[in-house]
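Can't attach files on this board, so I'm pasting raw text. These are the components:
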Amino acid sequence: MAKKKTSWIVWLRRLTQTGFFLLFCYLFLQTVYHPINKAGRGITFFFNLDPLVALSSWLASHALVGAMLLSLVTLAVTFFCGRWFCGWVCPFGALHNFFTSLRGGRAKQKLEVGGYNQWQKAKYYLLVAFLVAALVGADVVGWLDPFSFFFRSLSTSIYPAINKALVALFTWIYNANPGVGPVRLTMVTEPIYGFLRKYFLAVEQPYYWGSMLIGVLFITTVVLNFFRPRFWCRYVCPLGALLGAVGKNPLVRLKKNEEKCNSCRLCLVDCQGGATPENPLEWKPSECFYCRNCESDCPAQAISFTVGHGGPDVRAQNDTALRTEAGEKAR
Amino acid sequence: MNPLSKWIGDFVHPPKEARLDLGRRAVLAAGLAGLGAKLLFGIDPQASKRSFNPALIRPPGALPEDEFLARCIRCGECMKVCPTNAIHPTSLEGGVEGVWTPILNMSIGYCDYECNLCSQVCPTHAIRQVDVPEKKKIKIGLAYIDKNRCLPWAYSKTCIVCEEHCPTPKKAIWFEEVEVLNIQGEKLTIKQPRVDPDLCIGCGICETKCPVKGQAAVRVTSVGETRNPENQILLSPDSFGEG
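---
Top answer:
Structure tokens for the assembled complex are below.
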């Protein structure tokens, strides 16, 4: 079967994901000294969007930083539109999405590991544990909050490692300076190095105690994507759990035209969250990132996302459709 | 029934796909795990406020330890922004509860006198926002001289590096000029550094710049920090009833 063209909405999603990921990286790089004694502007933006750290910090300390009220927007939109934040905004989710897309394997293999798993409930239990701990005064949610996890890993481990590697590479090229006659490699590399020096590299090589553990944990979360799609987002992320719990009955819902569906299960192959799109009666809004891969992958255009209350009507429709289909098959 | 009331109705009695089906017992167990974690954090000796880890030096503006832990989300913003690389993720210096919260390590960097960037970037104000004039008055710890390693004290060698770097308007490191014998038995006058605990803010530049390698001859510990009134080395005049 020829692969169906990826829908424009999936491309739009990839664009916003890339945009927010680059914004996160930009704000990360801006988190340095600016003359005179100024940190970058708006660098806590993603933390302000994060209702989990706001809630946990508020429960534990009974105080809330005003800017964190921005996270109420995230909550409100999630309440109506589901867990779209994980699929469209979260830069850590974008990273896992990217690495998930790198894994090889045929559709059949992906089907075997890509479906819903009971262990996806683990993140909700983690969330409950974190919130109860916060309620009694221990705010340790930052260990696994995705933005904290990502930023901490970048700042203490990944960025220093990349910084050191780049400086070593360009220094090596500069010293060796291979080339033919007057044409030298440094003619190309030195302008690149100059650019990196100005916009990317640290003024001085940073070093952090305990960065090894933080780095290994980070790389582990990345590698796990090759075993389960978006492992972190499905099984671990306590922010994803909070958004899943808030957006468990959204107004934007998956709708499937059972008359068009030929039960090929292609919708399941690239499902990021394990939300069982193949069966609208079982579709799990709390696990759905609204990535729209199922809709895009469906060769029969049987899946759509519709605004409005799915509720009993749609379920009844689906139910009828299922029965009709079953009836036709029986005949 | 209109869609809105259906929707509200679904919240009261969620349809199958809208239920998380977590199971009461598992949720209870998770809640107890959170509670248990707090109980275990609570019996760490540092929670008694009688025992302070001298190595646990927090950034200037950090709230008292229990309030600090209730707010810090371990995001590493302060670690990234610190221009001298002084702020590191805590391992176990602050107990298990404090893992990955910020800690200053003066063997790598020091707290710059004119800088308050960590307080600017903290998203939860666990490091409260302090302007530079206020920050300059905050003690994050106290330096002490290791007389067994300090060049003038231990080897009768001239060295004034710590005093030269000390940033406070009136230097917190001062010298006592004493007549000592060198290794050849000759008399010489030498300046021996001492720390004034009232002036020292614990910024640690003396430790970072100390020419004695391995372990610096002047080091900072958390004692005397402004944020924890219990963690003091000197009794205040009030303690003597002098008023």
